[in-house]
Amino acid sequence: MYLEIDNVFEVERSAAVAASDGPKAVRIEVKQRLNDQSYFIFGWGQLETAIDEACRSAIRTRRGSANRATRRGWEFYDPDDKRLSGLKFENRAALVLDKDRGADCAWKKVIRYYNMRNQIAHGTLLASRIDVTEERFEKGYWSMCSAVSPLR
After folding, report:
1. Residue 152: what pLDDT?
2. Torsion angle of C-alpha atoms 92, 95, 99, 101, degrees rounded to 10
3. Are 71 and 56 in contact (CB under 8 A)?
4. Which of 16, 22, 31, 41 has its CA 20 to 30 A from that of 78?
């Protein structure tokens, strides 16, 4: 659906450029950025849910350990709490993604996306478009949902 909407905008923008209607082209470019960023936020929700569910699973697994030393550190966290007992997003992500795999590891990508998400969600329209095409997201953003795994 994203591409259908974007293609309509692109046809309209190209027509405006061809007609030398700069103001109209700019208005359409803003709509394209809004469309990109709306889709990005939709995708973010999917990724955040995957991270939160994997985090809940990790907490339950560790809280259920027969080993008191393992269990003790996890008893402070309530996996049924909507906010996961106040764990910051960065820490929830670190529980289920390896953050020590170099500059391009999944955790660092997620944090970069998280910073973009925060800008958009708090009212700052990004100045440039976000490439949210299926091909790019299948290789990056969406595939991170499957990279998320609870600690065993």
Report:
1. 44
2. -150
3. no
4. 41
